Amino acid sequence: MKAYSEAAAASNITVTEHEVTFDPDASWVKFHLGINRFALYSREDPAIPRLLKEMQSMTVVSADYTQDEKALKGACDCTQVVKPSGHHLKLALKMQNFAKAMFKPMRQQRDEETPEDLFYFVDFQRHNAEIAAFHLDRILDFRRVPPVAGRLVNVTGEVLQVTHNEDLRAVFFNSPANNTCFFAKCLYVCKTEYAVCGSPDLLEGSLSAYLPGLSIAPRISIPNPWIRSYTFTGREEWEVNPFFCDTIKQLYPYNSGNRLLNIIDMSIFDFLISNMDRHHYEIFTKFGDEGFLLHLDNARGFGRHSQDEMSILAPLSQCCMIKRSTLVRLQLLARPEYRLSDVMRESLEGDPLRPILTEPHLLALDRRLQKVLGVVQRCVRRLGEAEVITRDFVKSTERPQAATEKKKVR
Question: Is residue 277 flagged as an active site residue?
Fold first, then answer.
């Protein structure tokens, strides 16, 4: 920082200096220390509400592009119809107490629906979807989404004036309305038409708490077996083969343990938020095959409240399996006194950017929940409760081999 400040002074650039202090009792440290093999945080972890509150006001000391955007720099082809990761700006903000959060700015108004003819892989990403997804994940008792809070960010004082990245500084400009704007420099989109603008400096966005660094807590990214085709005409096997899950059940790591059930949990979560963009999932390597799946990057959720994309539920409808704990929670949230939309509405009231979701999106949650329960009921009628509803830790899902097959294996 000293070397950069000297170089900036020589170029007549003003860099805001902030004193940084490390607090071993900081909420983000407690959050990291509380991660275990079952969830990112416990139900009653006091660090989570404290972290949510602090992310709304912590002093930003540094801003930069995220690592995945940096990796694409120079490799982006602006002639492509489909960009590598959608047109969305993401920034990594570092705070005064060494906390780090990912900032996703507002790109779409809450009452705007995704147009019917727009493909899911070119849809806008929505900051309010990230916020709402965290609250829903917590209500469902999954606790697999890192804490997310809404915040008004001063893009001049909290991004431009504290960044040490010259590429980021170079994409700031003033609009004809005299608002401060910035865009991605040939990362995902290459034109000022895709810029985000403050009013004149304040910009609404979501702040997602970073997970521990990969050197401390390694993670691996695994393709989702129910991945979608990211082309205009292609179709994946699961879309044409209703018995696709029978094949998956024979394959490692889905032939034993909780992995397949966790995929089904994820599909239910994605169906409720209407997220069709779950091409990969991540797990912490430390917890092995029985570790939970991280529900990261949910910004393409809550695009259309008027449509329920049933194909998202393919893992549930094709495998006809669900954890008993997941089903009990869903049934509870379907009861009038604990209606999911009411619980979500109350939970989201605690965010400073409220209202996070419009009323039609909240009511869509109730409608979709009934459809999830309907799929489970059809499975139970066809296969029986013992076959469909399973305890959280299960034995192998691989089919028993015939005696002659076992001899061949030996």
Answer: yes
